[in-house]
Inverse folding.
């Protein structure tokens, strides 16, 4: 069954990107107007984040978000047959910032949020960065798509670490120099095991793992956010967090939270509003809400 699905998607991937974007627009229309995929969640999230905006303004952001969401799905299919040169032309990042850290001998952790298009970005990083790349990901329940996505993510040599088996998968690399990509705005498995921060004016739990790993492993830390200057092209800026390993876990997490909120305010249509970022409600027993 895997080869049937792969073959079908491979044929679709051969279509020019302009044609695929016509398909993307059609899917967008169905998702937004007909099936209303997670629309209530998206609009609720936007209302929490941007109470100062009108309903019309939030709906405009939502429409752009859905376009980007479907574009990413279509662009991921395009990766099946797209050449590395094709992808390299469409993803622009200041990779030299990471490469300049290599002589230090330290590994590097990249903290970023759920924003588009991380799939293209990670594949291009595999040929642009002078360090082995470890990508932490959440396994997909469907075995066919799990196999497909893993093959696409490893196409430029990246190594995959399952978030559910992080300690086990990381063992072969713990004494090596690497760049580890972490989506650091994941919801915690349990709200009591998290740092709670004011995020867009609402108490929000953030996982402790990224900061704990960075400090414990004495790594360099960089923050990254991707934006979209035009359709089919992405740009990202990598920023080094100075002396990250000398910070406390709370200080480093706070710095990322403030960074993430700032870049989302600049490019709201690029963040994954369909995930339930505020599904947990703060309780006094969880500890203070940090600023």
């Amino acid at each position: 069954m895997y080869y049937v699905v792969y073959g079908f998607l491979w044929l679709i991937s051969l279509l020019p990107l302009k044609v695929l974007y016509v398909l993307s627009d059609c899917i967008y229309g169905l998702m937004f107007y007909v099936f209303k995929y997670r629309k209530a969640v998206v609009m609720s999230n936007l209302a929490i984040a941007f109470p100062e905006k009108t309903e019309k303004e939030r709906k405009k952001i939502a429409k752009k978000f859905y376009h980007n969401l479907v574009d990413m799905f279509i662009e991921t299919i395009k990766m099946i047959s797209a050449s590395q040169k094709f992808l390299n032309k469409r993803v622009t990042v200041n990779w030299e910032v990471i490469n300049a850290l290599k002589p230090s001998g330290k590994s590097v952790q990249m903290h970023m949020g759920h924003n588009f298009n991380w799939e293209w970005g990670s594949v291009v990083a595999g040929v642009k960065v002078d360090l082995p790349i470890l990508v932490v990901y959440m396994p997909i329940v469907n075995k066919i798509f799990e196999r497909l996505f893993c093959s696409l993510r490893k196409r430029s040599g990246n190594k995959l670490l399952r978030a559910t088996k992080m300690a086990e998968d990381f063992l072969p690399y713990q004494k090596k120099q690497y760049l580890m990509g972490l989506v650091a705005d994941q919801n915690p498995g349990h709200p009591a095991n998290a740092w709670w921060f004011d995020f867009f004016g609402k108490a929000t739990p953030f996982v402790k793992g990224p900061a704990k790993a960075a400090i414990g492993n004495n790594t360099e830390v960089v923050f990254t956010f991707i934006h979209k200057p035009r359709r089919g092209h992405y740009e990202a800026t990598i920023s080094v967090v100075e002396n990250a390993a000398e910070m406390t876990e709370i200080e480093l997490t706070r710095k990322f939270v403030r960074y993430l909120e700032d870049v989302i305010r600049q490019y709201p249509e690029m963040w994954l509003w369909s995930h339930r970022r505020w599904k947990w409600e703060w309780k006094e027993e969880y500890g203070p809400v940090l600023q």
